[in-house]
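Technical note accompanying the year-one report. For the benefit of new consortium partners, we illustrate the data format agreed upon in the data management plan: each record pairs a sequence with a structure-token string. No post-processing was applied to the example shown here.
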Amino acid sequence: MNYTIATIASHSCLQILKGAKDEGFATVAIASSKHVGFYKQYSFIDEILPTQSYKEVSALEKTLLKKNCIVVPHGSFVAYLGSDFDKKTKLPYFGSKKILEVEGDRRAQQRWLEKAGMRLPKLYKSISEVDRPVIVKMYGARGGTGYFVAQDKNELEKKLKANKTREDFVMQEYIVGIPIYIQFFYSPLSGKLEIMGVDRRYETNVDGIGRIPAVLQEKLDVVPSYTVMGNFPIVLRESLLPTVYAMGERVVEASKKLSTKGLYGPFCLETIISSDQKVYCIEISCRIVAGTNCFISGSPYSDLLFGEPMSMGRRIAREIKEAISKNRLEEILD
């Protein structure tokens, strides 16, 4: 049986479908009608299915099933299709839907990371407990949109009152250090964990404020925000690699208690590394992250492992290809 790799035309679609084509798959992009022209320029996309609204993607399921599509999810699935799409869709899905559900629940995610032995920032259950600077994070994969920092309890109360959306959120201790995002791939077929890349995010307007002299910052009436606009690659000092690799191993092992299949495929540990080289895990993303777009031709780390151009998108396609050849596809689809 011939399979097609499909995804939504956003986030990391280009590298997912380029990687799928490199591994010999047919490809389908589900695109907003206004973006069809843009995606048509890429020859590795065999077919584009237009939709007026991503909320209508479910109406395309029969078409996608007829094409034997395997869907590769990314962050825009939550933003555009809603948090319940993972559970409702009948399409073969690369990744554990149960694990994706845990990813979307920040308190469940915290419990998972605790069981994995991660060094974590303190999580506050109520405003009255706050005794140091905190960062407030909204639920869901929205690229940092809506996050804000509060210096103390009083400032936190004021900012929460001013926050008109009042969505579900968590209050997390603000760790001073460098944000580092480690991209992993775990293969259930081989039982091996791979470091595929490392990146950092460019966030607005907090990174813009940082370029302004301190004396001017004090005069600006600007509230820092953390919406991600892009990413740039980083090479982590080699002495830290065994530490972060062990973190990835522990997260995968702990995930096996959350679902039968556990965590597999691409995931990202979002960390803060302090000046004394302590690595705090602040969050986990359980699907391909946008930072992998820095490495469409491969990263220094994937090059060490594969010796050929290997994006995360291509690594996903290769895992699917191997599962098909070994008649083990059910192990990696949900």
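Partners are asked to follow this layout when depositing records. The CA atoms of residues 120 and 190 lie 30 Å apart.
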